[in-house]
Specification:
globular; two-stranded antiparallel ribbon; mainly alpha; 432 residues; 68% helix
């Protein structure tokens, strides 16, 4: 027999599920309208876009996976250690089912964007209630940059889902502090890292902050942190072992860090495309080309030897000109929040949107009550991303996976400041 609180809880859960389903359908509908309208008006999107077969080459990697060759750019080439595995595996699986890579890109991107929005809705439902969840879901569903990338073969939209899922798990890891949510957060973190490796060092900031928040119950905190680490290692290690087998080198996720580091140094003064061209030419002269011929084009594929060279060269540049690193961190950290290298209009739009979101979040931060323990790890993630991309190379596209969190906290802050949050945050006791 259900108690009154139990019945109320069930009703709220049903309301949340209905709202999540509505947001998934809204996201898919918006993207369907975008694709149909773009094709009807002759816009260059998807396969018609000049950047569709980008230097990332994920379509070719997915096609090789579908054909049973593993993650490589062509059947006669060696397995690549330059790209993380999750996106190629998803594309390969979908292409194997439907036999159309272009449609596979669209399906995976739209599906993961919609699911990421639903996860954000659930997260902000538990943080601040129905109004914040609804506002977050609608704005994320209509956010132009997330829609535009629906038919581009980049990892940003699957990262958007995994980072949202990671943040959702962190919410309960910080609130409940049990090993189940610690393990779930570790799994979500590992999947995000296997989609794009830039977050690999984030636990160095996250776990000490978590343990500090557990000072009243250190034992539970340590167990939860241990579960996080163990599960993350279990998920990531098979890929690291694979990299060692195919390259003979210990490569946790991918190569390419040294190359991007060096290109980022040069991109302080010239367009990134010019910087890429200069170092591609340099590598070719030295005998280790940075590109390989795949099925549909010539793609970046940095070998471990080439990456070592680029990394050493970048470090020597910084040693000879110490001001370069300081200048790079300052300029690069800002560029993450606004720069679109090939479009002044997109750059201006991104700068305005980022400024408004940060202003709203910052203005409402003192109003956070029950959620004040949770915004800390999300803020740490923003700081970590800003520093990492600032040191390596930064542009606004790399911020898109975090845009849902920015929007959610900005919406929550706005509603708190305006006094329009009337529904209480959902109880999390049932999730222990």
């Amino acid at each position: 027999m259900y108690t009154v609180p139990g019945c109320v809880m069930m009703v709220k859960q049903k309301q949340l599920c209905k709202l999540m389903l509505f947001m998934v359908l809204l996201n898919l509908a918006v993207r369907a309208v975008f694709v149909f309208a773009s094709l009807s008006f002759g816009m260059k999107i998807g396969p018609k876009s000049p950047s569709y077969y980008s230097s990332d080459g994920y379509q070719d990697l997915g096609q090789m996976v579908a054909q049973g060759y593993g993650i490589r750019f062509a059947p006669d080439l060696k397995p690549s250690v330059f790209r993380a595995p999750v996106y190629p595996l998803l594309l390969g699986f979908t292409d194997h089912l439907i036999g159309n890579m272009d449609l596979s890109v669209l399906i995976i991107n739209c599906l993961f964007a919609a699911l990421g929005c639903a996860v954000l809705v659930a997260m902000f439902w538990y943080i601040a209630g129905r109004n914040a969840a609804l506002m977050t879901g609608i704005i994320v569903s209509l956010y132009p940059q997330l829609i535009i990338y629906s038919w581009h073969a980049f990892t940003e939209l699957i990262q958007f889902f995994f980072i949202s899922l990671f943040a959702f798990c962190l919410l309960f890891m910080f609130r409940i502090r049990n090993t189940i949510w610690g393990a779930a957060a570790g799994a979500a973190f590992a999947l995000e890292v296997l989609a794009k490796g830039w977050m690999l060092g984030f636990p160095v900031l996250l776990l000490p902050a978590f343990l500090l928040s557990c000072r009243k119950n250190e034992s539970r905190g340590w167990k939860c942190a241990f579960a996080f680490c163990i599960v993350a290692l279990i998920v990531i290690c098979p890929w690291t072992v694979r990299n060692y087998i195919v390259s003979g080198r210990l490569i946790p996720i991918t190569t390419g860090g040294g190359y991007q580091y060096l290109v980022g140094n040069r991109a302080l003064d010239v367009n990134v495309n010019i910087a890429n061209g200069e170092y591609d030419a340099l590598a070719a002269r030295l005998g280790f080309p940075t590109r390989t011929n795949g099925i549909h084009g010539c793609y970046l594929d940095i070998t471990p030897v080439a990456d070592d060279y680029f990394n050493n060269k970048a470090k020597k540049d910084v040693q000879q000109h110490p001001a370069t690193l300081v200048r790079k961190v300052c300029i690069g950290s800002l560029r993450l929040w606004y720069l679109s290298p090939n479009s002044k209009i997109k750059t201006m739009f991104a700068a305005i949107i980022s400024g408004l979101l940060l202003l709203a979040w910052g203005a409402g931060t003192p109003k956070f009550e029950r959620s004040n323990i949770f915004w800390m790890p999300c803020a740490l993630l923003m700081v970590y991303a800003t520093i990492v991309f600032g040191v390596i190379y930064a542009e606004y596209r790399y911020l898109l996976p975090l845009s849902g969190l920015l929007i959610g906290f900005a919406c929550t802050s706005f509603l708190m400041l305006s006094g329009r949050i009337v529904s209480k945050p959902a109880d999390t006791e049932e999730l222990k």
